[in-house]
DNA sequence: GGCTTTATTTTACGTTTGTAATAGTAATTG
DNA sequence: CAATTACTATTACAAACGTAAAATAAAGCC
């Protein structure tokens, strides 16, 4: 079961700080999404049902924390895009970006350093 | 208006060859998706409504061709992922992949060549 | 111990998506 | 020209999503 775009915004805040009460999550999201509290609670419940997060009772409320790891989510999403659009190969993807939105000097330097390192391993 | 995953499979075949009749599309998809003809026709009609493709009458049937360009679609998808998950920066994305699924020698060489070229421009 | 507050659980509702079947129409053929 | 064939257009329907309001339940206060 995959998590939706809206749900992933909720995951974001839980990945940043953990565990959180529902109210904490609402506060944290205040700046990023124009959602009513009720909406956020719905999303929390859907994430629970999908086992992407867990809830532990703490007195009268719950403490939520992620079960799904950010790295795993990021990988699943990235890999799927890479496979669908670039035949699973990274170089073409980088090439695509560089063709589209000129990479800055810094980006290039950063990439260069990274590749050097990979190359020497 | 964005096109869905299923719809993008239809776009794929139209990007490969163009224009095509509905029946051509059905044939082309036979190997890639287990869809009934009716399903594919629905997808074609939705793509039409979304203006991602155009249809031109040809006698009793239509010839379909893409309006949305593959490069634009690819870019929109990739950019959105890059922004959502890697703060819009490419190096971290490459780093992520290299950490997750060891890049092959060839991949690295390919990347290296690419970066060299970018660096000298 | 009722009333209010606070937090959770249930229910709602319009869209989009995946997946298709059915109805309608134009062309072809006997 | 009536019947069949080929296509297209309309309709269907359940699940997922975005977005939220209403109903409960539990706790604290007067």
Characterization of this structure:
2 copies of one chain form a homodimer. With 121 residues, chain A is mainly alpha-helical. Chain A has 2 domains: 5-66, Arc Repressor Mutant, subunit A (Orthogonal Bundle), CATH 1.10.10.10; 89-121, no CATH class. Helix content of chain A is 63%, strand content 10%. Chain A has helices spanning 5-16, 22-29, 37-49, 70-86, 90-100, 105-119, and strands spanning 53-58, 61-66. In chain A, strands 1-2 form a two-stranded antiparallel ribbon. Chain A binds chain B through residues 8, 71, 74-75, 77-79, 81-82, 84-85, 89-91, 93-98, 100-101, 103, 107-108, 110-112, 114-115, 118-119, and chain B through 8, 71, 74-75, 77-79, 81-82, 84-85, 89-91, 93-98, 100-101, 103, 107-108, 110-112, 114-115, 118-119. Chain A binds a DNA duplex (30 and 30 nucleotides) through residues 4-7, 21-23, 35-39, 41-43, 45-46, 59-62.
Q: Write down the domain tally of chain A.
A: 2
Q: How many beta-strand runs of chain A?
A: 2
Oligomeric grouping of the chains: homodimer
Spatial separation of the terminal alpha carbons of chain A? 36 Å
Proportion of residues in extended strands of chain A? 5-15%
CATH superfamily of the largest domain in chain A: Winged helix-like DNA-binding domain superfamily/Winged helix DNA-binding domain
Q: Most extensive chain contact?
A: A-B, 32 and 32 residues
Provide the CATH architecture of the largest domain in chain A.
Orthogonal Bundle
Shape of chain A: elongated
Q: CATH topology of the largest domain in chain A, which one? A: Arc Repressor Mutant, subunit A
What is the structural class of chain A?
A: mainly alpha
Strands in their spatial order, largest beta sheet of chain A: 1-2
CATH hierarchy, class of the largest domain in chain A: Mainly Alpha
Could you spell the SSE succession of chain A in H and E letters? Answer: HHHEEHHH
Please state the average pLDDT score of chain A. 94
Helix count of chain A, per DSSP?
6
Helix fraction of chain A by DSSP (H/I, runs of at least 4): 55-70%
Q: Report on the biggest sheet of chain A.
A: 2 strands, antiparallel
* Weakly predicted, low-confidence segments of chain A: none
Radius of gyration of chain A: 19 Å
């Amino acid at each position: 079961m995959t998590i939706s775009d809206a749900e992933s915004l909720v995951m974001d805040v839980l990945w940043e700080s953990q565990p959180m009460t529902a109210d904490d999550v609402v506060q944290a999201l205040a700046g990023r999404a124009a959602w009513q509290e009720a909406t956020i609670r719905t999303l929390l419940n859907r994430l629970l049902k999908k086992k992407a997060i867990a809830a532990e009772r703490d007195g009268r409320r719950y403490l939520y924390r992620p079960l799904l790891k950010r790295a795993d989510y990021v990988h699943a999403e990235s890999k799927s895009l890479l496979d669908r659009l670039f035949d699973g190969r990274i170089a073409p993807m980088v090439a695509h970006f560089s063709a589209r939105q000129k990479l800055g000097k810094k980006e290039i330097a950063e990439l260069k350093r990274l590749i050097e390192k990979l190359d020497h391993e």
